[in-house]
Specification:
The complex is a heterotrimer of chains A (about 280), B (about 180) and C (about 450).
Chain A: H1 2-17, H2 45-57, H3 92-99, E1 102-106, E2 113-117, H4 131-137, H5 156-164, E3 181-183, E4 205-207, H6 228-243, H7 247-275
Antiparallel strand pairs in A: 1-2, 3-4
Helix pairs in contact in A: 2-6, 5-6
Chain B: H1 24-46, H2 52-56, E1 60-63, E2 72-77, E3 80-86, H3 89-97, E4 120-124, E5 135-136, E6 144-146, E7 151-153, E8 159-161, E9 173-177, E10 180-183
Antiparallel strand pairs in B: 1-10, 2-3, 3-4, 5-6, 6-7, 7-8, 9-10
Chain C: H1 12-20, H2 23-32, E1 35-37, H3 46-65, H4 75-84, H5 89-117, H6 125-147, H7 152-164, H8 172-180, H9 187-216, E2 234-236, H10 237-262, H11 292-300, H12 304-324, H13 336-356, H14 381-406, H15 417-421
Helix pairs in contact in C: 3-5, 3-9, 3-10, 4-5, 5-10, 6-7, 6-9, 6-12, 11-12, 11-13, 11-14, 12-14, 13-14
Classes of the chains: A mainly alpha (about 280), B alpha+beta (about 180), C mainly alpha (about 450).
Chain lengths: ~280, ~180, ~450
């Protein structure tokens, strides 16, 4: 949120001060060829599994995903879907993934706040108990919830991927406050922080989050190389799935609906031609 | 239209070629329209069925260690009360003795608990008459008594007297261990 | 309804019902045998499309209301629960969200058709005014509905639009406070908006009944704008227009389905998937696309009250349109000069929509820095909106009144059948003379 506020303030200043220079460079966005692109696109299960691991081992330290439950991981289209367990609450792998995570609860006998191993029906626990705590631990910036982040940002998974791989050393002439990191893909306007040529404002913006990914930070079970590139792609795909878990169902339903409608349209057209055959109009 | 045949009758109601005649193409188009409506009605109906999160909470695990002998603990399951009763040996004996009594909804006590666990009686705590919650230990048979319309259940949860038609329902459950059950 | 009824009850039960509640006769006369000009083109199919869209919005909306929670703490999550957990919830919500856009697309085409063929002219002024009321109610419903998901755009859109009323002198502040039920857009606002969003569609449905009633008294206008002279000019609504409307509806549904299934969020804003935060405004706040022309008019005026008045004035203008257009000829087919101005009007409306989606101070024409061909102040969307706004009002208040008096229209055909039957290929000898035998 703070990042947004900073970007906003920068944007506002830029427009108030010099409308003629409003056309600051657009943030860099790199397109990825996703498996879920296009009308027949599907989620890549192995990629979602890797992405979940990146989220769990890296992002989850600061970012909540409070709209997701462990059971979602085993639902149709999800990373750990197993056709043998149509009810993902019974999926043993999902159960074991849940069990590794402690969730807060209330002891039914004493009323004390306790933690217990999660069950598939439990939501992903949030890393911080409340917003002030989250801000206090992150230098005043609030790590946004990631449940629908892939739909809540222009560019969706491409944006997330670009942001994850967009950290660069700040160019000379860019003033960064402590705790800020320069990212070529962040939405923002650096005009006010730029000391150099007014026509050569660098693209991107500043992020409070330090570069989260690093080579080898996550060990992928399927032996995929653990590069920043790979981690960024996988976690972006996972976050897109998290934001739009019914995408495959939607496209499947849509295919049937489109074929049916097309057939219906053709039938109606011939019916129409036949009925109007003898009317001069 | 451009393809109107020269000399074709401009009268739409000429008897020879009535355009409203229900020939195949119109029937097919009408059927396709009806099919589209039906296909759309199903999602609109199905949305009222339990949602994913509701189903996820539909099974619960319960630790029997919390129930002292002779006691009953009520837990909420699928929005309804669930009776978990730890029966005393004499209560079990009384229930078994009534296996051959005149029952409205005949069932043996054996069939109402898991094999080898006669002390544990797990029942859905809603009266089979109109859904009130029976009180434990009441009635003429020492099982449950429903205060709404006076149904008496025995120590096996079988209906013995009053307007209710059926025994208290035994839900689907399984012992995960000696002291832990999973309901649903 | 106009004319005599052709309904003849066939069975005893129908006769019995017909003398007590002639509902079958009513349905027969309005939806089946209603004499309709036989030269209506595809622009006339949007009435049927709109009726269907209203039905879809009502049904999906009622279903969504079964799952939605109108509370600031739960609204966003309850919408996401619909998307994730409710059976087919994703389908129903995407149908409703995109359905609103499709509804507006169809209503705009319906209105443009009306303007082109002069359907608002006597004796259809009341029909037109009822249509304007429906449009007004649609805008209110759509705006309120957009608030319900309680995302960033929902919240700040609600803030901006309710603040419009604050521009009114003296009563402005009490009215906004009353609308909000507090001192800002908050839970009471959301709760009442939900109630109103459920109510207004039924108001629209009632207006639609009046609209159809008002249509069935004078009957349809048609592309020639010439009144129906004889039965020769008409065909019964069923099966001729049920099947033609049906075909157009099916094509429209294909477009609708391509949004619902393949681009469900393309007409929305990413910011609305961020839960509402009263402390931070999205960097680029814009309304849904169907409000953009009005948003551009609002921003074209540097004064708050002036902008609000002009925006409402744009809608109010539509209500008096039947009395602004002085032309005796309905259809622009026979008004070449007016047609030219009409196309510029459509262009101006599109330009306004385009400007509404841009930042006001952004340059319209990109010029390399250092090279100043145009003054940056003039080369901005706010100035482009000003020009388009000026034309928008001039079209209704100057061009249409003056043109009707000064222009010379082309010769208008005697009747609807004439331009068709005079076409040699389709004129069997004696066809004009012999009246049609009708059942």
């Amino acid at each position: 949120m703070l990042r947004k506020a900073i970007a906003l303030a920068a944007l506002g200043l830029a427009f108030l001060g010099s409308p003629a220079l409003a056309a600051h460079p657009k943030p860099v966005e790199r397109d990825v060829a996703w498996s879920f692109d296009g009308p027949f696109g599907k989620f890549d299960t192995a990629q979602l599994q890797r992405g979940y691991k990146v989220y769990r081992e890296v992002c989850a330290a600061c970012h909540s995903m409070h709209l997701l439950s462990f059971r979602n991981l085993g639902e149709k289209g999800g990373p750990f879907y197993d056709p043998e367990y149509p009810n993902s609450n019974d999926n043993p792998y999902v159960k074991s993934l849940a069990k590794d995570i402690q969730v807060p609860d209330i002891d039914q006998d004493t009323g004390d706040a306790i933690t217990r191993p999660a069950m598939p029906a439990d939501r992903f626990p949030s890393p911080f108990p409340n917003e002030p705590a989250a801000r206090a631990s992150n230098g005043g910036a609030l790590p946004p919830d990631l449940s629908v982040i892939a739909k809540g940002r222009e560019g969706g998974p491409n944006y997330i991927y670009s942001l994850m791989t967009g950290y660069r050393d700040a160019p000379a002439g860019l003033t960064l406050s402590p705790g800020q990191h320069y990212n070529v893909s962040m939405n923002g306007d650096l005009t006010s922080a730029w000391k150099g040529d007014h026509h050569k404002v660098p693209p991107g913006g500043v992020v409070a989050m330090p570069p989260p990914l690093a080579a080898g930070k996550v060990t992928f079970d399927d032996g995929s190389p653990s590069t920043v590139e790979q981690q960024a792609k996988d976690v972006s795909a996972f976050l897109y799935w998290a934001a739009e878990p019914k995408m495959m169902e939607r496209k499947q339903f849509g295919l049937g609906a489109m074929i049916y409608l097309l057939f219906f349209t053709v039938l109606l057209y011939f019916s129409y031609r036949r009925i109007w055959k003898n009317v001069a109009h | 239209m451009a393809d109107t045949v020269v000399g074709a009758t401009p009268d739409p109601h000429a008897p020879g070629d009535d355009p409203s005649r229900r020939d195949f193409i119109h029937i097919a188009a009408g059927a396709a329209a009806a099919g589209a409506v039906v296909a759309l009605v199903w999602p609109l109906v199905d949305q009222m069925n339990p949602a994913g999160d509701t189903l996820a909470l539909a099974s619960i695990e319960f630790d029997l260690g919390k129930v002292e002998p002779g006691q009953q603990v009520v837990v909420k399951w699928r929005g309804k009360p669930l009776f978990v009763r730890n029966r005393m040996p004499e209560q079990i004996a009384a229930a078994v003795k009534d296996d051959h009594a005149e029952l409205r909804d005949p069932a043996t006590d054996e069939s109402r608990h898991k094999p080898g666990k006669p002390q544990w009686l797990i029942l859905v705590g809603t009266c089979t008459h109109l859904g009130c919650v029976p009180t434990v230990g009441g009635g003429d048979y020492g099982g449950w008594f429903c205060p709404c319309h006076g149904s008496h259940y025995d120590l096996s949860g079988r209906i013995r007297k009053g307007p209710a038609p059926k025994n208290l329902v035994v839900p689907d459950y399984a012992f995960l261990s000696d002291t832990k059950i999973k309901v649903g | 309804m106009s004319g005599h009824s052709t309904y003849e009850p066939k069975t005893g039960i129908e006769r019995w019902l017909d003398t007590r509640l002639p509902i079958v006769r009513f349905a027969h006369d309005t939806a089946l045998s209603f004499p309709t000009p036989k030269n209506l083109n595809y622009w006339w199919t949007f009435g049927g499309i709109l009726a269907l869209m209203l039905g879809i919005q009502l049904v999906t909306g009622i279903v969504l209301a079964m799952h939605y929670v109108p509370h600031v703490d739960y609204a966003f999550a309850s919408v996401e629960r619909i998307m994730r957990d409710v059976n087919y919830g994703w389908l129903i919500r995407y149908m409703h969200a995109n359905g609103a856009s499709m509804f507006f697309l169809a209503v705009y085409i319906h209105m443009i058709r009306n303007l082109y063929y002069g359907s608002y002219k006597a004796p259809r002024e009341v029909l037109w005014i009822l249509g304007c009321l429906i449009y007004l109610a649609m805008m209110a419903t759509a705006f309120i509905g957009y608030v319900l998901p309680w995302g960033q755009m929902s919240f700040h859109g609600a803030v901006v639009i309710t603040n419009l009323f604050g521009a009114l002198p003296i009563i402005g502040t009490p009215i906004t406070t009353w609308l909000w039920g507090g001192f800002a857009v908050d839970n009471p606002t959301l709760n009442r908006f939900f109630s109103l969003h459920y109510l207004l569609p039924f108001v629209i449905a009632g207006l639609v009944v009046l609209h159809i009633w008002a249509l069935h008294v004078p009957g349809n206008n048609n592309p020639t704008g010439v009144n129906v002279k004889s039965e020769n000019d008409t065909v019964p609504f069923h099966p001729y227009y049920t099947v033609k409307d049906g075909f157009a509806i099916a094509v429209f549904m294909l477009l609708y389905a391509s949004f619902v299934f393949y681009n469900p969020n393309v007409l929305g804003h990413a910011d609305n998937y961020i839960p509402a935060n009263p402390l931070v405004t999205p960097a680029h706040i814009v309304p849904e696309w169907y409000f953009l022309p009005f948003y551009a008019i609002l921003r074209a005026v540097p004064d708050k009250l002036g902008g609000v008045l002009l925006m409402f004035g744009a809608i109010a203008t539509l209500f008096v349109l039947p009395w602004l257009d002085t032309s005796k000829v309905r259809s622009m087919r026979y008004r070449p000069t007016a047609r030219l101005y009409f196309f510029i009007f459509v262009l101006a409306a599109l330009v306004l929509g385009f400007c509404g989606g841009k930042l006001p101070d952004d340059p319209v024409i990109f010029q390399p820095s250092g090279l100043m061909l145009l003054d940056a102040d003039i080369n901005s969307f706010v100035w482009l909106s000003r020009v388009a706004t000026l034309y928008f009002f001039a079209y209704f208040w100057i061009i249409l009144p003056v043109l009707g008096l000064t222009e010379t229209p082309l010769p208008v055909p005697e009747s609807i059948s004439e331009p068709v039957l005079s076409h040699p290929a389709t004129t069997p000898a004696g066809a004009v003379a012999s009246p049609e035998k009708r059942g």
